[in-house]
Design goal:
The model has no long low-confidence stretch (mean pLDDT 86). This protein starts with 10 loop residues before the first strand and ends in a 6-residue tail after the last strand. Strand 2 and strand 3 form a beta hairpin. It is built from no helices and eight strands. With 127 residues, it is mostly beta strands.
Length: 127
């Protein structure tokens, strides 16, 4: 699933849960998550959030995109140099504001450094 699924939807809530999960709840009851399931020999976490997640609530999402690189970062600032690293940016905006969520993944090159986006709960459509 791609994060652009959020375009046109209005969020009821956007919450960060630690360094490895952000949950988005829509006004129609759907719940989506940005997350990474950790494995051995790799680490993927939220490095920063520029903007306020609250600005994504109450207005339709106008921009929802993912930008990523899987090349070595020139200004690497961690304790040791990994064999592989990936920066992934999620850019979300409403008429109220813009949020840029930056994830950083590193590994020995064998394990995934990607961030997952999934619908974890669908709204009940029964009448």
């Amino acid at each position: 699933m791609n994060i652009n699924e959020l375009i046109g939807k209005t969020l009821k809530c956007a919450e960060r849960h630690g360094d490895d999960r952000i949950e988005f709840e829509t006004t129609d009851g759907d719940i989506y998550e940005l997350y990474h399931l950790q494995d051995c020999c790799e680490s993927v976490s939220i490095e920063s959030i520029v903007g306020d997640l609250v600005d994504l609530v109450g207005h339709p999402i106008l921009i929802a995109e993912e930008v990523s690189n899987d090349e070595y970062a020139n200004n690497f600032k961690h304790e040791y140099e990994p064999e592989s690293c990936t920066w992934t940016f999620y850019k979300l905006a409403t008429i109220k504001g813009y949020v840029d969520i930056r994830w950083f993944g590193e590994s020995n090159g064998y394990y995934s450094e990607s961030v997952d986006f999934a619908k974890t709960k669908s709204a009940n459509k029964e009448s």
